Amino acid sequence: MAELKYRGRVISEAHLLYIREMIAIHPEASRRTLSKKLCEAWQWRQANGALCDMVCRSLLVTLERAGQIVLPAVKYVRHNPLAKRARPGPQLIDTTPIEEKLKELDPLDFQLVRRTGDEPLFNSLLEQYHYLRYEQPVGAHLKYLVWGRSRPIACLAWSSAPRHLAARDRYIGWSAEARRRNVRFLAYNTRFLIVPWVRVKYLASHILGRMALRISQDWENLYGHPLYFLETFVDPGWFRGTCYYAANWVWLGETTGRGKASNSYVPNRSIKHVLGYPLHRKFRELLGELG
């Protein structure tokens, strides 16, 4: 049998035999039940202790498509509200211009809004005013609203980092195995918006600096582990990334212009600059550990 790999995990013949026996022993079990049993048997858990149920279920489907196992028929198709999610609508807010010095706007308030009453406001601001619009995050993520003078002035969205990113991986210098184990200690800044009626010099870089001081602890409070490194993409066709550089982020390289689903070496999207920010002075040692 050719070696099978799924998300860095080698699936041996012994693993396949175990999965087949489990399916045979539980002929009436659903795919969800089988996935949970396999996660428990393999101790396949996220950093916060939750079972890697969806990843495991995807593995089982992949093995079935490869002809290695036969899964029970799908018994129930769960309603997925994300499949036809309505776009966030506009909200009535004060858009009176704010044009003053940064010190006159302080103190700023950073609010985590995920699963709060202000999350719709966050979603709406990105949908209306960010050039990429709002995108519902998948997996680990944080959403911040930044307030000044009791008014929302900025939005920042952070998600788990891409598993493979050549420019970043070269900069960190970790092995493939270290990357597989430790990519969870990175976060990716997917959206950063200063609302258009706020024009305050140095505000964007100030916010990025303040974020760097708190995001690791916020992430650990929710997901059970800290962060050691931040990253983002800057599309040079739209921006120069000035605020990131002013906040001491560093240029790591460029993307290849190919999405993760690309099956060729031909770029199919714009090439972006990759920027990074170490949150710990020993980030390379911590991210390169295999223990």
CATH topology of the largest domain: Aminopeptidase
Name of the level-1 CATH class of the largest domain: Alpha Beta
Shape: globular
- Give the termini separation: 30 Å
Count of individual domains: 2
Structure annotation, total helices:
10
- SSE succession: EEHHHHEHEEHHEHEHEEH
Could you describe the 3D structure shown?
The chain is an alpha+beta fold and 291 residues long. The chain folds into two domains: 4-65, no CATH class; 102-288, 3-Layer(aba) Sandwich (Aminopeptidase), CATH 3.40.630.30. The protein contains ten helices and nine strands. The strands form two sheets. A seven-stranded mixed beta sheet has the order 3-4-5-6-7-9-8, sandwiched between helices. Strands 1-2 form a two-stranded antiparallel sheet.
Please describe the structure with a list of short key phrases separated by commas or semicolons.
single chain, alpha+beta, 7-stranded mixed beta sheet, two-stranded antiparallel ribbon, 9 strands
Quick overview:
The chain is an alpha+beta fold. It has helices spanning 13-25, 31-42, 53-65, 102-105, 119-129, 166-172, 176-182, 203-223, 242-246, 283-288, and strands at 4-6, 9-11, 109-112, 141-148, 151-160, 186-194, 229-234, 250-254, 273-278. The protein has two domains: 4-65, no CATH class; 102-288, 3-Layer(aba) Sandwich (Aminopeptidase).
